[in-house]
Amino acid sequence: MSTTLSLGLLILRLGAGLTLTGHGLQKLFGWFGGAGLARTRENFARQGLQPAWLWVTLAILGEVGGGLAVALGFLTAVGAAGMAGAMAMATFKSHWRNGFWMQRGGYEYSLLLMLVSIVIGLTGPGNYALDALLGIGQRETVLFIGLALAALIVVAIGIVISRRPQTASQDA
Fold first, then answer.
1. What local confidence, expressed as pLDDT, does residue 165 receive?
2. What is the distance, to the nearest Å, from the Cα of residue 37 to the centroid of all Cα atoms in its chain?
3. Residue 108 CB: number of other CB atoms within 10 A?
4. In the predicted model, is pLDDT for residue 45 greater than 80?
């Protein structure tokens, strides 16, 4: 892999990975003005994601764990799939109904991070990564695709089970 491509991937991994890590730390510890664990759990429960602790755990693993893995370039395929799953859930469950633009609560931020994680998962981390240093396969595309598909199945399950049943007044 060329030096400039590896450098570009390093910059992309650090930017996206650390940004999403910070976003997850907002949920976990309330850092950077975030909600913290208790309020995040309440928010997930209010959205119909039950059991809320499970969905919060998956979100934090995808955001903090996936973000750090991608930033470091360590087990990149696993981290990128975690990021993609977390951002797919955020995009389609929490932000889709608000439209594209973020100032209206839209999905532009979560969609962009999801797309970046997919690109990193498909291309690998580049030469400036712990995966390369440790001799872990740089192009684990098949692993990434399998994990990303599994994450999307979990996202679909979450969206389906969190739908509120129609009431008689809503049907009329």
1. 65
2. 17
3. 15
4. yes
The residue behind tokens 């008689």 is 168
Tokens representing 1? 């892999």
Contact 41, 59 (CB under 8 A): no
- Residue 16 identity: A
| Residue 101: predicted pLDDT | 96
Question: pLDDT tens digits, residue range 83-136?
Answer: 999 999 999 999 999 999 999 999 999 999 999 999 999 999 999 999 999 998
Q: CB neighbours of 64 closer than 8 A, spacing ≥ 6?
A: 21, 24, 25, 28
In angstroms, the CA 78 to CA 12 distance is 17
Closest listed residue to residue 83, CA positions, set 17, 137, 22: 17
Place of tokens 């580049």: 126
Side-chain-side CA neighbours of 168 within 13 Å: the count stands at 0
Every domain of the chain and the residues it spans: 3-160
Q: What gap in Å lies between CA 147 and CA 155, rounded to an integer?
A: 12
Whole-structure pTM value: 0.90
Exposed/middle/buried for residue 4 (C-beta within 10 Å: 0-12, 13-18, 19+): exposed
Block residue for tokens 């991608």: 70
The average confidence (pLDDT) of the chain is 93
